């Protein structure tokens, strides 16, 4: 893939870091964003060792002004990968009738990072790419955002995460039709569990757990093929789609019995 210039958010760890390392090669400019400066610097160091021109931007995707300034001044860009994201599970109330709940601060932070943070990346990238010339293939640029199989279900264990990822997927897929006419290819990554630090503290078995290298390879293959929705593992996504067709009470009866839905089954979201 001939991506001379690539911008990646969430590049300090997980999928974002994996994509940065996989894309690092001589002649390629990598613009790496993230909140953790030491980890971001380490990603850049490894990319430079592979021959890439890697530059870091320590910023939070929830900061609209900072993201707009960074993305708008980063051009030209061939590929933008919106990978920054957080997750978190429910807690148990201490009321007379204990029940799982998701703290307000966590709900807001997940929406701000996983949804608004994607918009803060994608919208200025779209504006930038509209002013770029088309390639011989008629393409001005590609933008890919990480959604999740959780966005295909109403999972009681991660309500905010499921809702935020559902919105990301629908926005990227729905917007892709018009963007394609402008020569900008949009992709949504609907993946299951990927073996990253974000899921390392989960206290339950994770079906279909995919190693980061395989996940990144699948994402880049899908982007290169202009896939609007990049799906893996397919069986997990298909099963999730089926569950979402069931009556709500029936689906909930199944989900609430799963270890993943248990209070404290997932760590609290990173609110720093």
TrEMBL record:
Keyword Oxidoreductase carried by entry: yes
Alphabetical list of Gene3D superfamilies matching this protein: NAD(P)-binding Rossmann-like Domain
Top-level lineage group: Bacteria
Gene Ontology terms, MF aspect: oxidoreductase activity
Record keyword Oxidoreductase present: yes
Protein name per Swiss-Prot or TrEMBL: SDR family NAD(P)-dependent oxidoreductase
SMART domains given in the database record: PKS_KR
UniProt record similarity statement: Belongs to the short-chain dehydrogenases/reductases (SDR) family.
Keywords: Oxidoreductase
Source organism of this protein record: Acetobacter vaccinii
Ketoreductase domain residues: 4-197
One GO cellular component term noted in the UniProt record for this chain: membrane
InterPro entries registered for this protein in UniProt: KR_dom, NAD(P)-bd_dom_sf, SDR_fam
PANTHER family: DEHYDROGENASE/REDUCTASE SDR FAMILY MEMBER 7B (PTHR44196), DEHYDROGENASE_REDUCTASE SDR FAMILY MEMBER 7B (PTHR44196:SF1)
